[in-house]
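[Backbone geometry]
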Amino acid sequence: MKKVTFLVVMLAFFANISMAQNKERVNAFNYNKNAQSYITTAEQLMVQNRVDKAQKQMANAKIELTRAKTSIDLAAENEETKNDAKTWHYYGVIYLKIATYPEFNDIDTEALTKCADAFKKLVELDETYFKNNYGEIITYIQSITTNYFNQGALAYEAGDYAKAIECYKQAYNTMAIIGQKDNEALLVAAQIAVMSKEYNSAIELCNTLIENGFENPQVYQYMAIAQGGLENNDAMIQYIQTGREKFPEDENLINEQINAYLKLKREAEIIDQIREMAEKNPTNSVYYFILGTIYGNQESELFNVEEAMNCYNKVIEINPNDENAYINIASIYIDKSNALKHEADELPLNETKKYDAMMAEIDAVRQQALPYVEKAHELLPDDEAIKQILKSLYVNLKMMDKAKALEAAE
């Protein structure tokens, strides 16, 4: 009889220990439930525009949520409950609430990370529990991911690109907890990495996307830009070519190919591609401008003044207010007049007739440049360099009234 009594006492003792160990988890559940009740009431009051009362409800919710955090932290450290999936389920729910509502963020500034880690631990501890609660858990995972996207957007707008990249990477890692690959999150991170010249980070992100079998032209575009930024020119060309093979009509990749070959001074290899793009995009002047720049470059094997002028005039035809086209045409005429003037100045003193003929030719070239410089000045009235060129043309062409008027306007 004594043995039976002793056994009953021991069972009761262990039962009390187990109850004590589970108590904190139960407390956490109840405190969180109370917090949610206050939050729901606050949201209803906000709809009614009763702001003061809503704020009081949120203050009460914060008290309850702080208590819930304290209890679940204890349960997560306890030897008997720390390896139980339910503990981490409650832990994740409570910390998600802290991370989601701005009123609660200061309870724990690392709440979102801890929340994601909790659900990851849950999956690792008990796959059966995870499967039985999959519908609920996936909702929380998606909410965590949304939080990371929102934080990433805010960090990007604030100019904190490193944090933005990390947030989008964490969004990807969070979806990976449930076996899903949020490749769009990594693509956004890669875009920001390229934009902020974090080229090694961009390459790492793009490699992951390629390994995931994510077929998107931007992956190859970003990879090419990053490789080019690190002066890995062979790799840059390789990724452009691979991207073009997979996505032959993607204009961003075509533009990247043009930029790459221009950078490497391999214009002859890409000139036909640029012309094709110009013809495909008759309302976009940029391709004709690129052609004009190539043909107008005296160091290029394709140097051709007439072709350059034709291309720049095509730019003006498409966009009459493109100041750079006017400036570049004017530069061609002015360079020609300067070369002729240098040649005239080198003539012997006894070749007066030839000198006079050359000066007349120079004035004719200056007259050709004049309307383009005047238009550039009209479009960029505060540009001092253009103003000085225009004044010089007026003086050389003996248009003193206009030269004085221009000077008076300063």
Notes: The chain has three domains: 20-132, 160-264, 321-410.
